[in-house]
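Quiz preparation item.
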């Protein structure tokens, strides 16, 4: 296919790819058979949505898409045991992962229990002292004081720690890739168990927890009792789904869409407080969840008190929520500073090692384990290669995190390394994984991982293409158009927001903002202007080229959104790439 607008290598080194002839034809057919604007039809055509499916796609109904919880193995067992504990006043402990998905999962259970006039002990392990998932000491201690332990967003590979909980029943509600055997416990509900069909493999842990509560409420109804309002809890499921980068397909689209509506009601103190401190001044969307709320909830688990995020999301007290939101906002600022330092060192090390290998990796002494995952994401984005970043402590134990690219299953390869004895432990899913490695095994482990990833074709991946949904002129970028495009949302993983090219435009204003961002105003020579913001522009050649444009014309590419400032709304372009015109 010919490069879109002839851009074979943009200022960020990417080839621009536009809609195929088939997609253009499908979009034209949609436009003729519906009342939808061309830009929306182009987006639907790229997703493979025809005229008969368009209406249901644009208005996904949760009642039509929500799967029967009993379709997951052990679900009925897990729900029955949880309900028995809640009804009979047994002592319940919730062992949660320290990220947004774990915190949201815990908050779902705590909110449901509170509505039933019950409570539970929340336990979130310290990332540095305890690491990811259940550990034997914590599980044994919890078991000695509780009748039921519910592990959320963790536990599927925790055979020994769960075996240590001899005095309590354990239920696992997880979504991470399962091994050949499951821990010996009361129930393991996980769409990524090896004996599952995989039809619901895209669910995050909070969605699995939500499905269990659907089953619990069903069992309550069978006994003639009305359970708590689950629809009011979908804000937590939406936050977790987007922040955990779960694909926004199938039921996930409906969960997030409905969850955003719930969130807009501002009923949950923790999310209200976090939204306010994040200066969200419009109705929430998936961008807000992924880039404003999610990082702040995660900040507690990364560099602060591990349970802060879960406590914020579950508290009914607005005063307490405000105090916790302020602390998380402070921690997020500290996290950014730590991340910047580690990122610079990791990138320098990776560049020295070479960026065209099947695996890009870096390791350093005392790199904070709370930021290695974010830095791995940055390396992956910069190189379009699977990336691993590892921080070693004074005892020679390295804790690392990895991020992958489409088509390369990193979690399975990490699990293979662990089974071969090259890692202390490791696991995850296709796009993200965690590991623990001893210093003397670092080089052989990374060499072996590189081999496994090469077998999947990671060494043959070129620079990522920039996929575009079509062309627009500045005058066509209206608030109405942005609102119409939003009807095809929510946007996120596996459902990218529409991206348009603005061809042959002139830069009328360019100003550097902070250290690396750029603000631009551009036009087409017909008195139509559009403002753009480019985050991280000066991390590439993009910033300098546009700032020092010297009257040259450019093709610009990015995503449209609505900027609200002082009560006034305007359309702006989130500029992602550019190329000289002509």
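Solution:
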């Amino acid at each position: 296919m010919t490069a879109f607008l002839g851009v074979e290598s943009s200022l960020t080194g990417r080839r621009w790819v536009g809609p195929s002839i088939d997609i253009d034809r499908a979009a034209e057919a949609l436009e003729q058979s519906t009342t939808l604007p061309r830009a929306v039809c182009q987006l639907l055509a790229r997703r493979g949505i025809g005229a008969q499916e368009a209406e249901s796609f644009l208005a996904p109904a949760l009642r039509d898409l929500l799967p029967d919880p009993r379709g997951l193995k052990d679900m009925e067992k897990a729900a029955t045991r949880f309900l028995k504990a809640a009804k009979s006043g047994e002592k319940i402990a919730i062992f949660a992962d320290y990220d947004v998905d774990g915190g949201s999962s815990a908050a779902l259970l705590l909110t449901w229990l509170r509505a039933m006039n019950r409570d539970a002990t929340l336990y979130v392990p310290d990332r540095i002292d305890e690491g990811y998932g259940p550990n034997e000491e914590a599980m044994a201690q919890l078991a000695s004081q509780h009748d039921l332990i519910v592990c959320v967003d963790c536990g599927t590979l925790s055979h020994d720690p769960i075996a240590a909980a001899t005095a309590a029943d354990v239920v696992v509600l997880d979504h991470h890739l399962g091994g050949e055997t499951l821990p010996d416990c009361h129930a393991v509900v996980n769409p990524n168990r090896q004996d599952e069909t995989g039809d619901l493999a895209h669910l995050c842990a909070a969605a699995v927890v939500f499905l269990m509560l659907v089953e619990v409420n069903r069992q309550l109804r069978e006994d003639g009792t009305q359970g708590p309002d689950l629809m009011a809890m979908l804000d937590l499921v939406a936050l977790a789904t987007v922040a955990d980068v779960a694909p926004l397909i199938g039921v996930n689209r409906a969960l997030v869409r409905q969850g955003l509506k719930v969130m807009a009601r501002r009923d949950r103190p923790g999310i209200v407080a976090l939204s306010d401190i994040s200066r969200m001044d419009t109705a929430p969307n998936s961008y807000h969840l992924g880039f404003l709320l999610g990082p702040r909830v995660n900040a507690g688990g990364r560099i602060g008190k591990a349970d802060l995020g879960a406590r914020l999301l579950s508290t009914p007290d607005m005063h307490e929520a405000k105090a916790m939101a302020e602390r998380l906002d402070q921690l997020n600022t500290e996290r950014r500073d730590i991340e910047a330092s580690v990122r610079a060192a990791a990138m320098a090390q990776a560049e020295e090692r070479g960026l065209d290998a099947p695996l890009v990796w870096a390791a350093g002494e005392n790199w904070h384990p709370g930021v290695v995952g974010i830095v791995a994401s940055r390396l992956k984005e910069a190189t379009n290669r699977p990336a691993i970043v590892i921080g070693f402590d004074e005892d020679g134990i390295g804790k690392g995190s990895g991020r992958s690219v489409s088509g390369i299953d990193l979690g399975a390869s990490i699990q293979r390394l662990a089974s071969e004895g090259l890692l202390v432990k490791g696991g995850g899913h296709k796009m993200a994984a965690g590991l623990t490695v001893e210093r003397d095994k670092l080089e052989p482990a990374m060499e072996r991982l590189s081999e496994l990833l090469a077998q999947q074709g990671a060494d043959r991946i070129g620079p990522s293409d920039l996929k575009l949904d079509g062309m627009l002129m500045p005058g066509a970028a209206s608030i109405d158009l942005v609102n119409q495009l939003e009807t095809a949302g929510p946007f996120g993983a596996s459902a990218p927001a529409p991206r348009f090219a603005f061809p042959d435009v002139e830069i009328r204003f360019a100003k550097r903002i902070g250290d690396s961002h750029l603000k631009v105003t551009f036009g087409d020579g017909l008195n139509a202007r559009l403002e753009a913001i480019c985050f991280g522009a000066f991390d590439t050649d993009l910033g300098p080229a546009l700032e020092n444009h010297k009257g040259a014309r450019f093709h610009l590419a990015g995503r449209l959104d609505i900027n609200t400032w002082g009560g006034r709304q305007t359309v702006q372009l989130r500029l992602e790439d550019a190329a000289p015109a002509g």
